[in-house]
């Protein structure tokens, strides 16, 4: 046998984990006051005013704050056909004015009306916060009719003077309440998804509102249908946050119950929530931040990597590692803080797959989906 060897060079391309260009990164649907069913193409620096107000707008702001410079999102507003809700008003202080909330909330807000100077109607002054008192707008006079419009929310608080008008409003008194904006029904969400999928083949479908396991089952069925049609797609949405007068333990029990009757390898649900410290610090689910980070991550990269850490996130009071681990073990996506670190990170990119599945994390599903797309594209060239 002759030993006449040599050295040969091969280029192995496509292993960097980059997403193939041509298709948008994600199709985003959710409720807002913008034009329902219209298709918009947006990027990191796009103006979101066209969407008006609503849960979709809040989540897009978070997503674009973390998105890559070249990420393309296709957005289809869904019909906000499920009315929002208002909490009860908590009054702190000695003012004698009575009050009532009127209207249907269009978006989420943590409202605080703080009295700046006391007195009666058309005399007392106040200032308004939409983020739980972290920031306030300009001081205004409470009008003679007692109606204080909560800007851009579709809600107003109507005051009436007490038996002693001069003591109706007292300096430093506060009136606090929470608004949960209108949502979309399952039918409305799926209609918006269909409109988007008629035009684009995204890597992700992101549903920008809280959903439950009835929605998740529909997302899983759609993911299976798309896969059978050679369009592998991952679905991302969010669980609801803590309700009024609900404890964290009760909320965790609710999510575990939701999980018991559902499993799917290509559905990802974010349970992490809290405040993003800054201009808009109202409490919300972190799903928008997640979809922004996914636009920066390579397909084979875990979102738990340090590149996707946060220094401006505040988890809710009482949150601890035991809660995070319990939810993450159940398949939800949460944030955690490692001992010795000051930043928060995504724990990992869990899916709602069964524990026996190979597709329990984004980086596995994304890599396989990319391979399927590329292999099919190559194979079709040689068909017949």
Q: Spell the H/E element sequence.
A: EEHEEEEEEEEEEHEHEHEEEHEHEEH
Q: Mean pLDDT, as a whole number?
A: 92
Radius of gyration: 24 Å
Unreliable spans = 12-21
Give the amount of beta strand, in percent.
Answer: 15-25%
Structural class: alpha+beta
CA(first)-CA(last) distance: 42 Å
Number of strands: 20
Biggest pleated-sheet summary: 6 strands, mixed
Helix share bin: 10-25%
Q: Helix and strand layout, with pairings?
A:
Elements: E1 26-31, E2 40-42, H1 55-66, E3 73-78, E4 85-86, E5 90-92, E6 98-103, E7 109-117, E8 125-129, E9 140-141, E10 147-150, E11 155-160, E12 174-180, H2 186-197, E13 204-210, H3 213-228, E14 234-238, H4 248-260, E15 267-270, E16 273-276, E17 284-285, H5 287-296, E18 313-314, H6 321-329, E19 335-336, E20 345-346, H7 362-381
Parallel strand pairs: 1-3, 1-13, 13-14, 14-15
Antiparallel strand pairs: 2-3, 4-12, 5-12, 6-11, 7-8, 7-12, 8-9, 10-11, 16-17, 16-18, 19-20
Q: Nutshell version of this structure?
A:
The chain has 384 residues and is α+β, with helices and mostly antiparallel strands. It has helices spanning 55-66, 186-197, 213-228, 248-260, 287-296, 321-329, 362-381, and strands spanning 26-31, 40-42, 73-78, 85-86, 90-92, 98-103, 109-117, 125-129, 140-141, 147-150, 155-160, 174-180, 204-210, 234-238, 267-270, 273-276, 284-285, 313-314, 335-336, 345-346. The strands form five sheets. The protein has a six-stranded mixed β-sheet with strand order 2-3-1-13-14-15.
